[in-house]
Amino acid sequence: MNNVLLINASPNGLVSHANQLALELVDTLRQRHPRLELVERDLGTHPLPPLGMDYARGLATTTPFDAAEFEISETLIRELERCDILLIATPMHNFTLPAALKLWVDYVLRIHRTFSSGPEGKTGLLSNRAVYVLVGSGGFHQGEKARQPDFLTPYLRQVLGTLGLLDPHFTYLQGLVFGEEAVKAAIQDSRARLALEPLFNPLICA
């Protein structure tokens, strides 16, 4: 294990609870793999540029295309290809992905590059690897307290599967708007759940 890619989609940047928990996971991995390389892609602090007409037209051709967005796409895809573990720390916005993460998806989910399409549907072209998605939300969308739908999980699971990443693990930090004690409880619960994963056990739950 040599490389972890951390995608932080929160507008709160480094102080995002999901991102902080993801960094704890990286520290845990480094206890076993001291030379582990971390590549961080902070989509909130350094947002990606929107995709334009040239990129859209280029996707419809089979010849090389020199739109600036293709260079960005290649950089993001290579980051994915190099990583042994993908960590995604994201909030839930309006029941689904934040715009920053959706734009990242549109850059990396690219026909003939990260997936192929045929009579049987789409097939991922990336090799499978460990994927952990940490989702922060102000309210509840999982469990007995759920009062809103969750379109993020099925959509992102489909996206990752289309890339060839077939077994993503989702962890939810819920109820984050209900005060400091609720935040502590959400983080503690997520730590305990992640500690059950062989990759991160033993995870300190202090």
TrEMBL record:
Record's keyword annotation contains Translocase: no
Annotated ranges, domain Flavodoxin-like fold: 3-194
Binding annotation for FMN: 10
GO MF, one annotated term: FMN binding
Swiss-Prot/TrEMBL catalytic activity: N,N-dimethyl-1,4-phenylenediamine + anthranilate + 2 NAD(+) = 2-(4-dimethylaminophenyl)diazenylbenzoate + 2 NADH + 2 H(+); 2 a quinone + NADH + H(+) = 2 a 1,4-benzosemiquinone + NAD(+)
Function: Quinone reductase that provides resistance to thiol-specific stress caused by electrophilic quinones. Also exhibits azoreductase activity. Catalyzes the reductive cleavage of the azo bond in aromatic azo compounds to the corresponding amines.
Superkingdom of source: Bacteria
Assembly and binders: Homodimer.
Cofactor requirement: FMN
Details of cofactor binding: Binds 1 FMN per subunit.
Family that this chain belongs to: Belongs to the azoreductase type 1 family.
Secretion signal span: none
Designated name of the protein: FMN dependent NADH:quinone oxidoreductase
EC number: 1.6.5.-, 1.7.1.17
Keywords, alphabetical: Flavoprotein, FMN, NAD, Oxidoreductase
